[in-house]
């Protein structure tokens, strides 16, 4: 449809950040020289998701949009807007236990910040119910075993999925 053409173009910003990353990044504040919208914006993120934006694309640093949302939660105190963006992404399929190039998941990153009690309870619920057996299996694979695997016998999508969970890539 016409509303999804922007997503299909796969536009990126600096550091190859997909467009959904911009919607949850507090550094995205201006279009040109005039402030148009305050970011992060739950409404813009919801619109992009409705148009088909992927919650699991990564930027040039290996960060998913969930990592971006987690990293920009204020250090000084809970922020309802940031927390709402994080929940929106998680509810729309963002991979909660995907590691970035530093080997850190968005959940690990967000736990280092001051959070509201309600958001902490929501995170606990996500962690206990949204991790599939497939995720748990991929995470339990020892990193030193990676280099012993014959990748020619493993489907490419499974290799990609395993790589979501480990800093060492197959």
Averaging pLDDT over every residue, what do you get? 78
Q: In order across it, which strands form the biggest sheet? A: 1-2
Low-confidence stretches: none
What would you call the quaternary organization? single chain
- How far is the N terminus from the C terminus? 37 Å
| Structure summary, number of beta strands | 2
Instruction: Give me the Rg, rounded.
Output: 17 Å
What secondary-structure arrangement, pairings included, does this model have?
Elements lengths: L4 H4 L10 H6 L5 E2 L2 E2 L6 H9 L14 H7 L8 H12 L14 H5 L6 H13 L3 H8 L2 H4 L9 H9 L6
Antiparallel strand pairs: 1-2
Helix pairs in contact: 4-5
Short description:
The protein has 170 residues and is mainly alpha-helical. Helices cover 45% and strands 2% of the residues. The chain has helices spanning 5-8, 19-24, 42-50, 65-71, 80-91, 106-110, 117-129, 133-140, 143-146, 156-164, and strands at 30-31, 34-35.
Would you give an account of this structure?
- By secondary structure, this protein is mainly α.
- 45% of the residues lie in helices and 2% in strands.
- It has ten helices and two strands; from the N terminus they run H-H-E-E-H-H-H-H-H-H-H-H.
- It has a two-stranded antiparallel ribbon.
- Helix 4 runs antiparallel to helix 5.
- The radius of gyration is 17 Å and the shape is globular.
